[in-house]
Design a protein that fits this description.
single chain; alpha+beta; YaeB-like fold; 2 helices; about 25% strand; globular
Length: about 70
């Protein structure tokens, strides 16, 4: 999670976008399946992949393993 936070902080300098990403992370932590917008197939480990929209141009991609651990890509 620390690596993700560091990447997001340096990549997206706009505070509004940072807050939107933070809110989406909170939603995904509560229920990664409920807020998924589209199923993208499987990752290299066979886990289901999904995306969630942050803005019209920015989407977060993630996969979920058998114990609901979210992996950001």
């Amino acid at each position: 999670m620390d690596e993700l936070a560091e990447y997001v902080f340096y990549e997206f300098l706009n505070v509004k976008i940072l807050n939107m990403i933070k809110e989406n992370i909170k939603l995904l932590k509560s229920d990664p399946f409920k807020y998924a917008r589209e199923k993208l197939g499987k990752d290299k480990y066979g886990n289901s992949m999904f995306s969630i929209e942050v803005t019209g141009d920015i989407r977060m991609l993630y996969s979920v393993d058998s114990i609901n651990c979210i992996v950001f890509i």
